[in-house]
Structure formats: structure tokens, C-alpha cells
Design a protein that fits this description.
By secondary structure, the protein is of the alpha/beta class. It contains 9 helices and 8 strands. Helix 2 packs parallel to helix 8 and helix 5 packs across helix 6. It holds the Pfam family Polysacc_deac_1. One of its GO terms (cellular component) is membrane.
Length: about 260
Amino acid sequence: MEGGRRMYVFKIPFKTLKLFGLILVLAVGLLIEQRVVGSVANLPTPIDQVKTEKKVMALTINVDWGGEFVPGILEALDKYHAKATFFLTGRWAKNNPEMVKELQARGHAIENHGYSHPHPDQISVSANQEEILKTEAIIQEITGTKTKYYAPPYGEKGASGLKAAENLGYTTILWTLDTVDWRPESTPEIITKRIVDPAVRFGIKPTREGAIVLMHPKENTVKALPNILSQLTKEGFQFITVNELITLEGVGDTTS
């Protein structure tokens, strides 16, 4: 006793403390998981194909380098009366304003590929928004038209980039068919086959009708493009912009 008061000491077995700690960790983990899942569930879904029975495709060309190959791509598109959507980085557009004007003059769509081609999943929502807005301002100054579609660099579709695009009123665009033309082993023949006769992936044969095709300005792409356009044109396909494809019949399920 001390000062006439009795002090009581409660002893909690170590096993009980350990069990309580485990329960606390599990509870916190469950709460975090629910918040993450809820956040992911609310993310916008990127568009990578449109469900349609019409023989139409949207060719997209992502440009951050390879400007020397853009004229060759334009020649092939003109020859087959095909329209494409060029997703430009802001830094490329800033350094090539006359080429941007040429793309517009030839009737192609010009959209947003971010400014400096970072990994969207590795930077914050605000940093992604800055990338998009800088590019938007540059392209609008050159063309007089505001961009509204966003192709994330590297095709990344994490929460940071998707939320940034959504916050700015953009629709995120991915692809159905990938030429993978940036790889050294991608010959013109291989590139052509990936689009004209796409391989089965995950047990599914990609549907070419309503497909979005990904390309880059590469030498072998320039060589493959006339073959792609020629073969598919003979099959009755038309090549339209992403906006025209999306507004054609509505967005459908993807094959990727």
C-alpha cells in the first residue's frame, strides 16, 4: 500500500497479447484491402476495342521519337485513303510544330500521349495531370483543337494515370492489336501478320472488326503499313479515327 491506496497489477498472458496483435494486424489489413479494392473498382475502364460487326479499324501511332519515319507513314495512309490517330508527346509536338500541322492538314486526328513519356504508374495523379495538360496546351496552340483522348506511355493502366485522365475529362485509349514494332526482331512480315492475321491470345482469337491497332514510327512499320492496308482493304476494311470508331456504335468488350 502507498498513501493508503492499494495498487493492482493486471497480468495479461503473452499468448493473449500475441493473439490480440494478430487480430489487429488482420483488421487493419482488411480495411486497407477494402479501400484499395473499392478505389480500383471505381476506376474508369480504358477503351481498347469497340464492339461492331462493321469492318472498321482505328490505327493509332504513338509518337515520341522517329519523326523521320512519319512522312512514310503519311504516304501509305494517303494511298489507301486511311485515317489514323496520332498520339503525340508534348515534347515531340513542341519540337515539330510543322509536322503536327501536316498531320492535321491531312485529316488525321491528333491526341495526347503525355509530355515526357514517363511511366504513369510510377508518378502521382497530379504529376500525370501535369503531363497531360502540358501536352494539351502545346497541341492546342499549334492546331487550335483541344485533345480529349489519352494514350498512356507503355500502355500502363494503373490507378494514378487513369484517375488523372478522368479528372481532366479524358478517355484513356489502349489497343486490341499490337504491332510490337519497336522490337528489333519485328520484321515487316511479322508486323503485317500481327494485324492481318492476329494470333490466338489466352485462348481467344482477337476480333479485327472494331479493333484499335498500336504502331510507332519505325522503319519496319513504314515497310509493313502498305501491306497491312492493302490486304485489309481488299477484305473490305476501312480505317477511321479513334473518335469515329468510339462514336460508331458504342464501346464493347475487349479481347486483350
